[in-house]
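2024-03-11 09:14:02 DEBUG pipeline.ingest accepted 1 chain
2024-03-11 09:14:02 DEBUG pipeline.ingest length=115
2024-03-11 09:14:03 DEBUG pipeline.predict start
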Amino acid sequence: MSDLGDNLRGLREKRGWSQKYVAQKLNIKQSSTYANWEYGIRDPDTETLARLADLFEVTTDYLVGREFNYPKPSTGQTEFLIKEMIDKYGIDLKEPGKKEKLEQLIKLVFEDLHK
């Protein structure tokens, strides 16, 4: 099976949807057309791929299996993100350990993006 087919099936099953339901949401007359995409027999056209991404609330890159390598934040970027979080959420860095916790949070987020 293709990355596209695997991703479509996984997203559909995660939502508890049937192939027929997805086909109806996309106004496809035959659910077998959608099934063929999941089985890797055929690929949707570009417009339909975009509609699938919208339906499943993912990017087209995700659907076709493209991976991204997000860069790890530099010290300057980490400091910038901490300042933004302080400004937006009113975090008080006078409390012991707050800055370290924010740095750990930023590190965890970027590590998760690398999975």
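2024-03-11 09:14:41 DEBUG pipeline.report The two ends are 22 Å apart (CA to CA).
2024-03-11 09:14:41 DEBUG pipeline.predict end
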